[in-house]
Amino acid sequence: MLNDIHEKPLLPEGKLPMLHELAMKYNMPAQMPGLEFKKRYGKSTYLSINELGLNEAHGAILGTDLSLKAIATRLYYSHVKHFSRVFSNQFHCSPGSLIRTKRK
Question: What is the per-residue burial (b if ≥16 Cβ within 10 Å, else e) of 11-48?
Fold first, then answer.
């Protein structure tokens, strides 16, 4: 299950998986996806999926010409400013800095 999530990018679908959807898809008890995330990543499902999404965003910033607004919207952030703050906390640089670095 977790390997499938890693192999399929989160951004193009624009939708993060719900735990009950994962459980149904992989024919497992409802609490199992949450336990698997915790076991593999050492943190909650929310934090794990958020981190995966931010990693996808980092790749999208470096590898595409998508706007920050488009990337933030695909990760369900209603404001680019909030996305930028969360991104900066994880990567210790702002998305704007990353874009400027990419252009050099």
Answer: beeeebbebeebbeeeeeeeeebbebbeeeeeeebeeb
What the chain holds in terms of domains, given with CATH numbers, is 2-103 (1.10.10.60)
Over the chain (104 residues), the average pLDDT of each successive run of 10 is 59 62 86 86 83 91 93 89 96 94 79
Predicted TM-score (pTM) above 0.70:
no
Residue 7, token pair as written in the block:
């192999």
